[in-house]
Amino acid sequence: MDSYKNFLVKIASSSASMEAILSKINSINKGKGAVVQIFDPNRIINKIHLSGAYIDAVESFGDKTNISKSKGMEMLLFVAMTNQISDAIKMVGAKSSREFVLFANNKTSFNKLKPLIKSSKEITRDKKSQLEIARKFGIYSKDDLDKFILQKMAISRIRD
């Protein structure tokens, strides 16, 4: 599995249409080991939120508990903390090419999407912003937020 240090998580924008971006991501994800996904920036708590979801998605394919047919879609399910693909897309899927959170499991995958990216920057959120977004997922703890994010993702798979 890719090292956590190799994951790229960026706030990005594009002048391309969402359809063009999603088509390119679909093409990239057909490559061996590549996982690229985009998300609504208002629904991503922090990098741990995405990294944990990616690791859970990879593990679900390894132990054959995956719900979807692709690791990118499985990751979307874990990020949304649901087992319903339509709910996950509505809840955490990117809404606009003007601003989205981009996850790539490695630099090679990221570079394949880069021609469509107008700008990108590191994702940083202060504690207050993280807590506000976490509340949207029913996470209210101020202490050890990362632990509660990972627990909520794990529980989401066994409760539905």
Short description:
This protein is an alpha+beta fold and 160 residues long. The chain is built from 7 helices and 4 strands.
Describe the structure using short key phrases.
160 residues; alpha+beta; four-stranded antiparallel beta sheet; single chain; 48% helix; globular
Tell me the layout of helices and strands.
Elements (H helix, E strand, L loop, with lengths): L7 E6 L4 H12 L6 E4 L7 H16 L8 H10 L4 H8 L7 E5 L2 H7 L5 E4 L4 H9 L9 H15 L1
Antiparallel strand pairs: 1-3, 1-4, 2-3
Helix pairs in contact: 2-3, 2-7, 3-4
Descriptive notes:
It is built from seven helices and four strands, in the order βαβαααβαβαα. It starts with 7 loop residues before the first strand and ends with a helix. It is globular. The chain is of the alpha+beta class. α2 runs parallel beside α7 and α3 crosses α4 (85-92). It has helices at residues 18-29, 47-62, 71-80, 85-92, 107-113, 127-135, 145-159; strands at residues 8-13, 36-39, 100-104, 119-122. The mean pLDDT is 93.
